Each structure stands twice: as C-alpha cells, then as structure tokens.
Amino acid sequence: MTTAKITYKTLESQAFTNVFDIINTRSHVRDPCDPAGNKIRTFVYDSDPFMTSYDYDLLPHIVVDLPELEQDFKTVTGDKKMMRWRHSITVRTGKNGRSNFSQQLGRVDILNIGDDLQELFNNPTRKSTLKGFGMKNVKLTKEDSDTGVVEGKDVYEATYTLEYDSFMNVTGRSC
Q: Which residues pair with 94 in a beta bridge?
C-alpha cells in the first residue's frame, strides 16, 4: 500500500500506511546511521523489535503502532461520523550512539529524530497533504522520555502520540 485517502473501507489500514510511510520517508525523518537516506537498514518498524530480541544493534529506531480508532458524533442516518485516530510512536537510541563510541551521541540522535517528527507533523505543506488524505487536525504530543539498559548499554527512549480526525462517510452510501 502507499499513501492515499482514507475511506470507509480502509479506516484502519490506510490510516496506518499513511503514518508509517510518511515517517519512513528518510527526507522527513533522518536515520542517524544513514544520513544519505539510502534505506540501508530498517529504521521504522510496525512492531517493537525488542519483543523478539533485545538487540542493541537495532538502535536507533522508531516504532509506529497500529492505530486506535474512535467514532463519535454521527449524523441522523449514521452515514457520516467523526473519526479520531491515535498512534503511539516510540523512538529509541543508544546513549553513546550505535557504535557505543561517542558519549552523548544518542542524546543528539534522539533529539534530532524528535525535531524531525515535530517538523514533519507541523509543516504546513505536509499538513495540507495529510488533510487531502482525510487526516485533519494533526497533533503530535511527546508523552514521555526515559532511559533504560539494553545489553548492558544505556538507551534513550521517547514516546509520542499522534492524533488526527475527520468527519467522513463510513458506509459507502451517498449522504
């Protein structure tokens, strides 16, 4: 799938694809291990890679969770509803960088990735593009930041919530 307008048939699948694909565009969110944007490694995941293995070599990375979806304020006929989506986004970096070589490189990496995410979802041109996909009132909130340990090495972690909504046809019938 590629980015496209969310429809009543793709309320969850297209919403996820749009968010995942726009974050996975390296010109929007740069991978510190691949500054040229060649996609030489997986940087954005659709599930937490640490669920299968706590592998320090997977850092830095971004995890985009599947969307939560809420429906509200329907029309009398029920053909249109206010749809609200929420995605959790997790960013992790190694405190000393992927090579565990340079102190505080991970702090620079996580802050740069956070800056890229904020710029991505606040950029007027991209917001207009997202609006065309049925993703209105886009808001990115940084919920938490923390440190932890993976394979005996310090890790930075930041969690975000991406929210957007749209009043849309949910039945396929013309209103």
A: 155
